[in-house]
Amino acid sequence: MEPILIEILAPTLSGIDMSCRGCGMVMDYVGLRSKYRNVCINEYPTEWKEAVRYLSEWIKRLLSLYPYHIQVRLIDAQSPLGLWKQIRHRLFRFPAFIINHRETYIGWDTDQLEELIDSCLKQAL
Question: Which domain does 53 fall in, by range?
Answer without folding.
Answer: 4-14+45-124
